[in-house]
Specification:
GO terms for molecular function: carbon-nitrogen ligase activity, with glutamine as amido-N-donor. The chain has helices at about 5-15, 20-40, 45-70, 75-90, 95-110, 120-130, 135-145. The protein has about 150 residues and is mostly helical. Helix 6 crosses helix 7 (about 135-145).
Length: about 150
C-alpha cells in the first residue's frame, strides 16, 4: 500500500472517529505530497521523494514548536506536538544514537576525513544513508564530535 493510499484510509478513519485535528494534519500531508508530484511533473512520487516531503513537513513543525516555546504560547505548543506525533507515524523507524554513531564512524573512515575541514564531505556522504531516519542536527552534532577527537 502506497503512502497516499494509507493517508486516504487514515483520513476516512479520522472522519468516522470525528478526529478533526488528525484529519487536518493528514490533509496537509496529502496536499504536500500531491503538490510535490505536480511540481515534479509526475503522477506518483517515489518512496525517496515521499520521504523528502514528510521530512520537510516534520522539520517545519519542529521549527514551529521551537518558536512557540520561545514565545511562551503553550496553547500552540500542544497543537504542534500533536501534529509532530501524527507526521512521525508515517516516517520510517528512527535510528538510535548508537546506530547513528556507528554510521558516522563508518562514513568518516570511508571518505578519509580527519578534521573539521572535512565536515561537508562527511555530511554529504552520510545524509543520503540516513535520510528520514535521523534528525540532521543530531547527525551534524555526532560528526562534529567525531571529527574533533
Amino acid at each position: 500500500m502506497g503512502l497516499l493510499d494509507r493517508l486516504n484510509d487514515d483520513m476516512k478513519q479520522a472522519m468516522k472517529n470525528k478526529e478533526k485535528d488528525k484529519l487536518s494534519v493528514l490533509r496537509m500531508l496529502k496536499a504536500a505530497l500531491q503538490n510535490e508530484a505536480i511540481k515534479l511533473g509526475k503522477s506518483q512520487l517515489s518512496e525517496d521523494e515521499e520521504l523528502t516531503v514528510l521530512s520537510r513537513e516534520l522539520k517545519q513543525r519542529k521549527d514551529s514548536l521551537q518558536e512557540f516555546e520561545n514565545a511562551g504560547r503553550m496553547d500552540l505548543v500542544e497543537k504542534a506536538k500533536a501534529e509532530i506525533e501524527i507526521v512521525q507515524l508515517y516516517m520510517p523507524k528512527q535510528l538510535t544514537e548508537e546506530e547513528l554513531l556507528e554510521i558516522v564512524k563508518q562514513t568518516i573512515a570511508e571518505v578519509g576525513a580527519s578534521s573539521k575541514a572535512d565536515m561537508g564531505k562527511v555530511m554529504g556522504a552520510i545524509m543520503p544513508k540516513v535520510k528520514g531516519k535521523a534528525d540532521g542536527s543530531l547527525v551534524n552534532k555526532l560528526v562534529q564530535q567525531q571529527l574533533s577527537q
